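Structure request: Glyceraldehyde-3-phosphate dehydrogenase, Psychrobacter urativorans.
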Amino acid sequence: MFLVSNADTLRQLHQDHLSQYNNQEQQAIELIGLLNKLYNEQDVQVTLFGETLDSTSVSRVLALHQKAAIRESGAEPIAIADTLDMVKAIAAHTNIQSASIDVGQLIVNNSDLEAALQAVNTSEQAQNGATDVVLYGFGRIGRILTRLLLSKASSAKGLQLKAIVVRPAKAGDLAKRVSLLERDSIHGSFTGGVSIDDDNNGMIINGRFVQVIYANDPSEIDYTAYGIDNALVIDNTGIWKDEDGLGKHLHSKGVKKVLLTAPAGGEIKNVVYGVNNNTVGDDTIVSAASCTTNAITPMLKVLNDEFGIENGHVETIHSFTNDQNLIDNYHKADRRGRSAVLNMVITSTGAAKAVGKALPELSGKLTGNAIRVPTPNVSLAILNLNLKTAPASADALNDFMRKVSNSNQWQSQIAYTDSTEAVSTDFVGDTHVGVVDAQATILTDNHAIVYIWYDNEVGYSTQVLRLATQMAGISYTQVPA
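Returned structure:
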């Protein structure tokens, strides 16, 4: 009798959970429709603790709401019903344009939505236009940028990917390029449709035509012949790193600005978004620095602001890259000729020095080295720091970094994990520029050691697009401020 009764109870429990989940799925479907409408018609982006929700799958929307529960110790999950109600209220304000609204922050802080939206001065608010984007180079970063740009809901505003430039190649090259975009050994299949337009030598990606241009040098290209003008060129090749080289892009008809996805030399500004992007101004050539510089600089800034950094050393355990050899062969650089998939390879990194360009107060205070390891993606930075003022304990330091990661200012860039099971592959595809691993934090007197995971492809690419958005003159009123 007991077994029958227990079975009935479990069966009812299963039905209750399933019914609850089905209800949440329907709410998520309704939510996605509203979000896409807001994005398309009003250029309003809605986020949940910095995570974009528009054009997201139902399962991901639900997972993001569950994930929100672990941001604060003992917190309850954000109810999707609450998010839906808030988004409905936002959608009722049809006069609001070009805003980024974080419903997660509004909900957990019990904010008055009407009062928060008053910060958006619609009478003086300029609407964002469209900016043509050209990806010069279609390697790892170029393809990740393409995925990020074209995975969002279609819109006539913001960054518009119009062309990809690659070196001249043999017949069949276009099909190869499309295949590389569709299938990725690290990040999986592209979530969307990609087809070839042979007649116009281009790709159709999620319904949007992207021209493929073959050229050996920027001087060969007239972009206006392809209907492209006042474009932002994102150079992913790494061939040119100074003003003379990158300036070639500006001589191409139809180009207005250039963004380099590598550290630059000379007088070109190396910019880490969120740290020194306020220095960009009207610069026509800007560098987005390196993946490691972007991963470590935000946390170094907040630690320096709070505790002060006397000096330190940065060691990066970095996944191997395409410039290394698969098997032993000649390489102009020391050690990089040895097999990348069989060896740990000690090499140099300019990231520690580059921090000083983004954070002048740390100039000359940090040394750095790198070890390339046989993994294809996700790297780990170890910050070995002597602090001016020490926190009370490692737990206190972790608590500070957790609060930083939850703050409205840093939540999109800095993340935090205290899982005892976290390993590198857990962070593949993570859009945060760096993830603090709290379990590894060490504090001895004033000496702190902080470990930061980062997807050196996706995390960095999100930073590139933030900087590209700024260079294009695209801005959003932040709610909450």
